[in-house]
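#lab-general

N.A. 3:47 PM
ok so I finally got the sequence cleaned up, no stray characters, all 117 residues accounted for. can someone with queue access submit it? mine expired

B.Y. 3:52 PM
send it over

N.A. 3:53 PM
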Amino acid sequence: MNWYLDVLKKYVAFSGRARRQEYWMFTLINLIVVIVLAVVGNAIHFAALAAIYNLAVLLPSLGVAVRRLHDTGRSGWLILVAIIPLVGWIFVLVWLASDGKPEENQYGVNPKYAAAV
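B.Y. 4:20 PM
back already:
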């Protein structure tokens, strides 16, 4: 749960790096919340509940994805590759799942090793 809250605290932080664990834990918890809100929204006949939540976490989701791309040494603008029909999202998914660069890059020090110090 701390991974999720840490991303929300960095609401619009697009600089720096994010570990794989930070990104995927946020994504997992976010997915669980969306499913729960969709079920609750359907039960109370307010289907837009999950959509409102998705809109509220849009900027934190983009921020953590950009920081994740920074960790792999790529520009955050490459998130836009996902809009290429059929294959764009596959490239972005592979980049988000790949391991970060162990050395310091132009986006900062490796968060995996910086946390241990």
